[in-house]
Amino acid sequence: MYATTLTRDPFATYRQIDAVGRTTTDGPGLVQLLYKELVAALRAAAWASDNRQYATKSDRVTRATAILFALEAGLDFERGGAVSETLARLYAGARRTIVDASVGQDGSIFRTTADTLDEIAQAWRTASAA
Hints:
With 130 residues, this protein is mostly helical. The protein has a single domain (27-129), classed as Up-down Bundle (Four Helix Bundle (Hemerythrin (Met), subunit A)), CATH 1.20.120. It is 87% helix and 0% strand. It has six helices and no strands. It has helices at residues 2-8, 10-22, 27-50, 54-73, 77-102, 107-129. Helix 1 (2-8) runs antiparallel to helix 2 and helix 4 (54-73) runs antiparallel to helix 5. The radius of gyration is 15 Å and the shape is elongated. The termini are far apart. Mean pLDDT is 84; it is low at 1-6. One of its GO terms (biological process) is bacterial-type flagellum-dependent cell motility. Belongs to the FliS family. It comes from Sphingomonas aerolata.
């Protein structure tokens, strides 16, 4: 993964390595970081969409979609049961919404999705602090 990115954008590779270095080895720390990056990517996609910055929008949509796949891949369906199933449906729905919105120019869809996911991120932060 890093080698492919390095040939395209060394600064992006540094940011990826930096993000990995900032995570803790525990699951909640990684999940919180992924949500933070996801919400930031969606808000950047909204700005890019509103300002006709199509390359930036595409990059941020790709990042948000990849993060949603990573969050879904990290679900423990055996221990999480119905919560994991609900989150999987939420992530899949968010991906569909984001991909559908990526062909348009309405940044509000990205903002609304970011706001919804930020509420879930807040719940993760609260649960982790307890």
